[in-house]
Amino acid sequence: MAHQTTWSIAEPQQLTFEEPVTELRVRVVGGTVNVVAAEGPAKLEVGEVSGPPLHVVQEGGTLTISYEDLPWNGSQNLRKWFESKPWKAWTGSGSASGEGAGEGGGGGRKAWERSAVISLTLPAASHVQVATVSATAFVSGIAGGTDVNGVSGDATLVGLSGTVKANTVSGAVEAQALRGSLGFHSLSGGLTVVDGAGGSVRADSVSGDMLLDLDPDPAAPQPVDIALNSVSGQVAIRLPHPTDARVEANTATGGVSNAFEDLRISGQLGAKRITGTLGAGTGTLRATTVSGSIALLRREPADTDASSAPLELDKKVL
Question: Of 122, 239, 282, 297, which sits with the fewest C-beta atoms within 10 Å of its C-beta?
């Protein structure tokens, strides 16, 4: 059985983990989580802790950072935990627990307030799982796979490879230079992918906008494999030119915009479709909305200025 070491961190502190870390699990409620790949032993820097102390456990290669009243159990039941108001049991001021406990006396802190600012460096090959309620998350350089789950906090993902999964209720996700596959699910959060080198994107959102700017690595091209679904969110996809993909984009009542001569727009009444084959058709692009508009944009060859324009500017065509 793996040896277990536990720390309780109630104030700013730095830890270096001599035992190798291969799996990171973080679950916090407010504040910021930064995870960056680096050589050498894993390190944790806690800049701020407000509320109950962080509960840090290393068992074998797995490092877990959470709270004692919020044990790690994967991404399941995070929202259920949040809605159960567990902070009523902690007041931080010695006053009676309850919804308003601690508001006016003791430490003067509301019972439900808690946050932490934590930064971690660990080997790139590690697998990272981050779950937050309202904290923002930043993950960079990880190659062993990344799972990010949040209620309302935004997440920024940079230079990741391996499988990337992001799930939010209302938080937005911005991904830059991803080389692996991306799965995204949200109710109202938006997704922005910049310089996406990975060919596979699966994304759905009820009302969040989705902006994809794909820039495959010429040295290791992958066929695009994109499936986007939204109810009222806008969808904009910029593809390299030339590209190889079979395209089918549908909207029930939204507008459409198409920059590719080989694709055709059809439809009657409110429903419209963009269909056709680009190049050899080796990849697949599917996008479906109910009332959100769909735009297919063209990334020109790298030696033209147009390809470097940010995708946000192209959103004007929607």
Answer: 282
